[in-house]
Amino acid sequence: MKMMIYFFLLFISFAVNSTSSNMKKFNFFDLSKQLNIFFKKEHPFNKDNISIIIRTPLKKNMYCKKPVFSLLRNVHALGLIDVLLTCNQEHYYLKVEIQLEGEYIVANRPIPRGTKITESDLKILIGRLDMLPNNTYRKKKDVINRINLRDFVPLQPITSFMTRPFWLVTVNQQVTVIINNKNFMISSEAKSLSNGAKNDIIRVKTKTGKIIHGVINKNGEVLVSL
């Protein structure tokens, strides 16, 4: 009889432990995985490989069925990020590091300042995007036909601060102004008051001294619609 009672108690103990273990597994969440999902929704990274590293020590045996994340005063989307975690009505402030690997644009050769950049001047590399300067170009098409503001050395990452558009019109240049209306079109000459690239809105001064605004077309003409 004692032997039967012993086995019965052992069975109950095993069942309780098993249930407790299952409950823990049911409640446990992989915080890094949840953060990965959160950041991909906040910032679509397309084909980039993203890694989330939690730099803040977490409490042991912390369980959360539905974690809620929000960003806190972050200027940059990569590197160290401040995240607020809401879990079971409690708040936790996390320091999270986002490591991102993907394609970016570098100079393929030495490029002297003032060059109109072509596709052959550029090269695509794959590396850690979070280690690069802000606003590093990711696609060649965004750099082609722009002018570099400084000398580039081979394999130097190119940022938007290092280039400017190719100006079809320069300040004080005599330009053709085309005024379009439903019933007529007038073409005349005017002086540009600033630099401008294709599709830029620019101010010009007519021979009569009137200042008007127009859009630069691919031929460097200024189109004015009435």
Summarize it.
This protein is α+β, with helices and mostly antiparallel strands and 226 residues long. It is built from two helices and twelve strands.
Task: Describe this entry's structure for a reader.
- The chain is an alpha+beta fold.
- The protein is 17% helix and 35% strand.
- The protein is built from two helices and twelve strands; from the N terminus they run H-H-E-E-E-E-E-E-E-E-E-E-E-E.
- The strands form three sheets. Strands 1, 2, 3, 4 and 5 form a five-stranded antiparallel sheet that branches.
- Strand 10 and strand 11 form a beta hairpin.
- The protein starts with a helix and ends with a strand.
- Structural class designation: alpha+beta
Helix and strand sequence? HHEEEEEEEEEEEE
Task: Please state the oligomeric state of the protein chains shown.
Answer: single chain
Mean pLDDT: 82
E-strand count: 12
Count of helices? 2
Low-pLDDT regions: 1-29
Largest sheet: 5 strands, antiparallel
Give the overall shape, derived from the CA principal axes.
elongated
* Strand composition percent: 25-35%
User: What's the gyration radius in Å?
Assistant: 31 Å
Distance between the termini: 105 Å
Helix content: 10-25%
List keywords for this structure.
226 residues; alpha+beta; 5-stranded mixed β-barrel; 17% helix
Question: Topology, please?
Answer:
Elements: H1 2-27, H2 31-42, E1 49-54, E2 68-71, E3 79-87, E4 90-107, E5 122-128, E6 147-148, E7 163-164, E8 174-180, E9 185-192, E10 201-206, E11 211-216, E12 222-225
Parallel strand pairs: 8-12
Antiparallel strand pairs: 1-4, 2-3, 3-4, 4-5, 6-7, 8-9, 9-10, 10-11, 11-12
